[in-house]
């Protein structure tokens, strides 16, 4: 992997293999020096300075949900209340 500075607020990462990029994206969120790294894949036609970096997926653990409410419909509703439910 190599990286380059795009501007004062953005870095670009180039992976040597697609599997490395997929593993990195699936392992989100990542931090560096206690700062959130928001990663978005782009291709050669995208402007790296114009990529939307307004959100980052998180795994959220919700405790004490009654057993009768532990289903996909309820969890989707709860997930959409705190953000966007993503599977």
Could you give the topology of this structure?
Elements: E1 2-7, E2 10-14, H1 18-26, E3 30-32, E4 35-37, H2 72-82
Antiparallel strand pairs: 1-2, 3-4
Explain how this protein is built.
- By secondary structure, this protein is an alpha+beta fold.
- The protein folds into two domains: 43 residues, no CATH class; 31 residues, no CATH class.
- 23% of the residues lie in helices and 20% in strands.
- It is built from two helices and four strands, in the order E-E-H-E-E-H.
- The protein has a two-stranded antiparallel sheet with strand order 1-2. It has a two-stranded antiparallel ribbon with strand order 3-4.
- Strand 1 and strand 2 form a beta hairpin.
- 0% of the residues are buried.
Give a short overview.
Helices cover 23% and strands 20% of the residues. The chain contains two helices and four strands, in the order ββαββα.
- Largest sheet, strands/sense/barrel: 2 strands, antiparallel
Mean pLDDT figure: 92
> Helix share of residues?
10-25%
Distance from N terminus to C terminus (CA atoms, Å) equals: 28 Å
InterPro entries: At4g02000-like (IPR040256)
Protein name: DUF4283 domain-containing protein
Keywords:
single chain; 87 residues; alpha+beta; 2 domains; two-stranded antiparallel sheet; two-stranded antiparallel ribbon; 4 strands
């Amino acid at each position: 992997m190599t990286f380059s500075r795009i501007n004062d607020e953005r870095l670009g990462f180039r992976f040597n293999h697609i599997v490395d990029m997929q593993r990195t994206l699936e392992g989100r969120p990542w931090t560096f020096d206690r700062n959130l790294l928001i990663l978005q894949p782009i291709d050669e036609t995208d402007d790296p300075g114009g990529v939307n970096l307004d959100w980052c997926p998180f795994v959220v653990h919700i405790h004490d949900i009654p057993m009768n409410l532990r289903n996909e419909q309820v969890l989707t509703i709860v997930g959409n209340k705190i953000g966007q439910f993503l599977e």
